[in-house]
Specification:
Adenosylhomocyst_ase-like_sf; binds S-adenosyl-L-homocysteine; binds nicotinamide-adenine-dinucleotide; about 45% helix; seven-stranded parallel sheet; 2 domains; Rossmann fold; globular; one-carbon metabolism; S-Ado-L-homoCys_hydrolase_CS
Length: about 425
């Protein structure tokens, strides 16, 4: 459904889904006390007044709270999807109907529509961009150089987006400041690890109803997402194998008690494969051919290229939709492999993404990063900036407070001791 005057004000599935979206957004808000406090302050102080803002995020109940906070802060904000399969259509409807926030996102939109929405976002002539995977910034740099003068800065949500921004900076094309939300401790320690750990399994279970106990689960990548996924899969009784290319992370996985081996050795052992590397073709033709009949493969890392679906599609003799988000590929050797969520982030395709309680901290970082960019307009160097440590710690303090957990404070004696070099021996 689109609404038009001269330009469409939104492009969503169905405005009549708004009531369900409103209810679900309210529910998520119970677990987002830190962002709520920021929203209340923003409503008073209006730090984003007059700022045109584009948020390219998964359109979920949690993102709804971010968008509402940005609008409360005075931003003229529009929202587009950061993934063709992750949009919650009822949330998109409620944002348009109840909050007058333009949304351009439909679950299951094709690639052409996805990229058209990126163009619509840039037509908004943003001053600030919230990106998740760096698609808006990359398009801006490649196609809209004349708009760079409008840009105060961007914020980036995810690991792969930071990898791309670093490459842009290296190539001399990132000519404005970018806030690295992903690397804030209150983001990746919790979102990438516990968020991905839980929601990836949630997506797999919703798509397949698989019993994890007793299965062999192969987790490719032992970064923050991999650690969480392996930990939670073990917690549900799976025997977990980890694959890595980084020797340090491989040792970590070994000492955390996992078996570590190359994918070529893991392929015939696994019942379930989960990629979380941010890399390309981590599972490919030679691996599909070696897998057990009925092996299940999915991805929870950025983008749909961790699994080489092109080669799988080219060799398969038949592709059958066997459940929602579940396709069975029949191989020439007679065996089949099952791919979930078209190889896109399974936690957002088949489930609801991370739980609100972790997104509370991720999006508190996003809101404060936008405020920081605007406050420091003109004084930040082009390139990638960390979230200031005091902001990161304040988010953690507020989260603990909201959880009703107190911690110790340093005594004067301890403060002196840890700052001294003479008192140590
Ligand atoms: P990370 O950099 O901490 O970890 C990635 C790991 O993958 C590294 O240890 C790297 O050595 C390993 N790796 C790279 N190529 C590999 C290969 N061929 N085989 C095996 N291991 C390989 O990153 P992260 O924070 O864990 O994020 C991983 C991916 O997940 C990124 O693309 C990120 O954007 C995405 N992400 C997804 C979600 C989600 O909601 N599903 C949440 C956060 C991040
Ligand atoms: N555009 C890329 C982005 C990778 S998504 C892609 O679709 O492949 C990874 C990011 O999704 C994470 O960094 C996490 O912060 C975000 N995410 C996870 N659950 C979410 C939720 N419930 N709502 C909004 N964003 C979420």
């Amino acid at each position: 459904m689109t609404a038009t005057s001269t330009k469409p004000k939104y492009e969503i599935k169905d405005l009549s889904l708004a009531a369900t979206g409103r209810q679900r957004i309210e529910w998520a808000g119970r677990e987002m006390p830190v962002l709520r406090q920021i929203r209340d302050r923003f409503a008073q102080e209006k730090p984003l007044a007059g700022i045109r803002l584009v948020a390219c995020c998964h359109v979920t109940t949690e993102t709804a709270h971010l968008a509402i906070a940005l609008k409360a802060g005075g931003a003229d904000a529009i929202l587009i999807a950061s993934n063709p399969l992750s949009t919650q259509d009822d949330v998109a409807a409620s944002l348009v109907a109840d909050h007058d926030i333009p949304v351009f996102a439909i679950k299951g939109e094709d690639n052409e529509t996805y990229h058209r929405h990126v163009q619509i976002a840039l037509d908004h002539r943003p001053n600030v961009i919230i990106d998740d995977g760096s698609d808006v910034v990359a398009t801006l740099i490649q196609q809209r150089q004349h708009q760079i003068a409008d840009i105060i800065g961007t914020t980036e949500e995810t690991t792969t987006g930071i990898v791309r921004l670093k490459a842009m900076f290296r190539d001399g094309v990132l000519t404005f400041p970018a806030m690295n939300v992903n690397d804030a401790d209150t983001k990746h320690f919790f979102d990438n690890r516990y968020g991905t750990g839980q929601s990836t399994l949630d997506g797999i279970i919703r798509a397949t109803n698989l019993l994890l106990a007793g299965k062999t689960a192969v987790v490719a990548g032992y970064g923050w997402c991999g650690k969480g996924t392996a930990l939670r899969a073990r917690g549900m009784g799976a025997n977990v194998i980890v694959t890595e290319i980084d020797p340090i992370r491989a040792i970590e996985a070994v000492m955390d008690g996992f078996r570590v081996m190359p994918m070529s050795e893991a392929a015939p052992e696994g019942d379930l494969f989960i990629t979380v590397t941010g890399n390309k073709h981590v599972i490919r033709a030679e691996h599909f051919a070696a897998m057990k009949d009925g092996a299940i493969i999915c991805n929870s890392g950025h983008f749909d290229i961790e699994i080489d679906l092109k080669s799988l599609g080219a060799t398969a003799t038949e592709v059958k939709q066997v459940r929602n988000f579940t396709q069975e590929y029949r191989m020439p050797n007679g065996k089949s492999v099952v791919v979930l969520g078209e190889g896109r982030l399974i936690n957002l395709a088949a489930a609801e993404g991370h739980p609100s309680a972790v997104m509370d901290m991720s999006f508190a970082n996003q809101a404060l990063a936008c405020e920081y960019l605007v406050k420091n307009k003109g004084s930040l160097e082009p390139g990638i900036h960390s979230i200031p440590t005091e902001v990161d710690r304040e988010i953690a303090r507020l989260k603990l407070q909201a959880m009703g957990i107190n911690i110790d404070t340093l005594t004067a004696e301890q403060e002196e001791y840890i700052n001294s070099w003479t008192a140590g021996t």
